[in-house]
């Protein structure tokens, strides 16, 4: 997988710029502060479920799932770039036996 764009970057480049909307105009239409929208489009905060619902209403060619999937892909890629401690498995399936019960 490649380095996915932050969903805020996609929001700005494809949707706000594509509709010739300013951050102030878009924030007002979404019912959020300009600061909040600025934090999203600058990649400082992610897309929440509530924001995904708002964005899907504002841009009807999108869905809440699209916005949440974009955020999840971005978050997972970022997390995979950081060291993760090695832990022991908490559960293992029962070993297979030679004779299966029917």
UniProtKB/TrEMBL annotation:
This is HigA family addiction module antidote protein. NCBIfam families: antidote_HigA. Keywords: DNA-binding. GO terms for molecular function: DNA binding. It holds the Pfam family HTH_3. InterPro entries: Cro/C1-type_HTH, Lambda_DNA-bd_dom_sf, Toxin_antidote_HigA. The keyword DNA-binding applies. It comes from Fibrella aquatilis. Signal peptide: none annotated. Residues 19-66 form the HTH cro/C1-type domain. The keyword DNA-binding applies.
